[in-house]
Amino acid sequence: MINWDSWPAFGLRSAEKGAKLSSALEALTRHHYERCAPYRAVLDARNAMASLGRGLETIPFLPVGLFKFEELLSIPRDQVAKVVTSSGTTSQQVSRVFLDRETAASQTRALVTILQDFIGKDRSPMMIVDHPSIIRDRTSFSARAAGILGISNFGRAHRYLLSDADMSLDVGVLSEFLETHKGRPKLMFGFTFMVWRYLYQELRRLGHHPDLSEVTLIHSGGWKKLQDVAVGNRDFKAALSEWTGMRRIHNFYGMAEQVGSVFVECEQGVLHTPAYADVLVRDPSTWRRLPNGQRGLIQVLSVLPESYPGHSLLTEDLGEILGEDDCACGRLGKTFAVFGRLARSEVRGCSDTHAPAAGLG
Fold first, then answer.
1. How far is CA 228 from CA 222, 297, 315, in A?
2. pLDDT digits (tens, 9 = 90+) for 235-287
3. C-alpha distances out from residue 29 to 4, 40, 77, 304, 305, Å
4. Fold category of 106-253 in CATH
5. pTM for the whole thing?
6. Which of 126, 188, 195, 151 is nearest to 354 (CA)?
C-alpha cells in the first residue's frame, strides 16, 4: 500500500521525512479504522479522526499494553501467516501480533535495509547466544525467536552457543567457531541480559578470555534485568570490551508489537530512527508532545504494519529525543535515548521469556 521501499533508510531530511510519514500514517490510520472494529471503537471514543491530517503529532496512538488483552487485526483470519507474541513471565499476559505475508515480508526487508547500513551487506559467520530449540515453531513464536530468525538472515554458518538442556555456554562450540573463521569478520547476536549472564558472566567464571576482536555484536532487550543489578549500556560495552577485546557493539530498540520500528545504536552511542519509522516523546500525565531534550513516554510510529493497527503505539518506556539530522555518524533522522520503563507500569520486554539464573533475577 505504501511505497516505503524507495525511501533511503537514513537519507531523508526532517521536512521531507515528516511529509512522507504523515501522509503514509494518515492513510494507514484510515485503512485500519475501516477494517478493525476494536480499533475503530477506540478512535471513535476519543474522536481521534477529527484531528487527523495535521501532522505526525495528531496520528492517534494505541497503548502498547492493549495488545495483551485485545486481538487486533485488519485482515481476515485466513490471511494470517504468522502470529508473534511478546515475551512475559508465566504470570503475565503476552501481546499477540497478527502478520499476513505482505507485512511479514515488509518487516524482513526493512530490517535488512536498516542493519546493512551498520554491518554491511556481506553475510559473515554468525554466533547466536541462545539455544537452537527456541526457533522450532516457525508459525507462532515469541519475540525472542522472531528476533533470532530476523537477525540470522545477516549471517551464515550459524552456531548456537547455549545448550538446549540447561542454557549452559558451550565453550567448545565457541572455540571451534573462532578457530574455523579466524581472520574474518564475524557476527554475534543475543538478547542483552542473555549476552551478559550466559556469555560474559560465564566466561568470567571460567576465567576464559576468547578473542572476540573480529566480532560485531548486535543485541537488544533485557535492560530491565540489567538495571536491577546496576549494569548500564556503557558498563555493558566496557566489560565485554575489556574481557574479550570486542569493540563493535550495536544495541537496538524495538518491540514485538510494532513491526518496522527497529532503532539501531550508531558509532556515537545513540539510537537512530530510519526513514519509515519515527519516535515522539509525550508527557506521561497530559500526553502533550515534548520538545527535544525533555524526558517522557516514547511513542513509536511505523509505516509497515498493514495487517494490524500497530502503526502508532504509546510505549511504557521513558526516553528523550537528542537531536535530528545532526549526528556525527552522518545518518539523517532523529536520535534518541531510552531510560527504562515508567515507574509502576507493567513490565513488557522483548526478551524476558527466560527466568534467569542467579545474578539477574
1. 10, 20, 20
2. 889 999 999 999 999 998 988 899 778 899 999 999 999 999 999 999 999 99
3. 16, 10, 20, 12, 10
4. Rossmann fold (3.40.50)
5. 0.84
6. 195
Backbone phi, psi, residue 62, to 5°: -105, 145
CA distance 279 to 149: 25
Name the β-bridge partners of 250.
Answer: 218
Cα Rg of the chain (Å, integer): 20
Continuous segment of H or E residues that includes residue 277: strand 277-282
Count of CB atoms within 10 A of residue 335's CB? 26
Helix (H) or strand (E) holding 324: strand 312-324
What is the rounded distance in angstroms from the CA atom of residue 274 to the CA atom of residue 356? 33
Cell numbers placing 275: 526513514
CB-based contacts of 100-109 (< 8 A; 24+ apart in sequence)? 100/75, 100/306, 100/307, 102/306, 102/307, 103/259, 103/304, 103/305, 103/306, 103/307, 103/308, 104/259, 106/4, 106/259, 106/260, 106/304, 106/306, 107/150, 107/259, 107/260, 107/304, 108/150, 108/153, 109/5
DSSP summary character for residue 304: -
pLDDT in tens, 67-86: 999 999 999 999 999 888 87
CA–CA dist 125, 298 (Å, integer): 35
- Residue (of 279, 266, 243, 241) closest to 115 by Cα position: 266
Q: Which residue carries 565485554 as its cell?
A: 240
The pLDDT tens digits of the residues spanning 84-93 come to: 887 654 446 8
Distance of CA 185 to the CA centre of its chain: 24
Task: Report domain extents, the chain.
Answer: 106-253
Across residues 21-47, what is the average pLDDT?
96
User: In this structure, is the dihedral angle defined by the CA atoms of residues 34, 39, 45 and 46, taken in order, positive or negative?
Assistant: negative
CA distance 255 to 249: 20
Alpha-carbon span 317 to 180, nearest angstrom: 41
Q: What is the pLDDT of residue 256?
A: 85
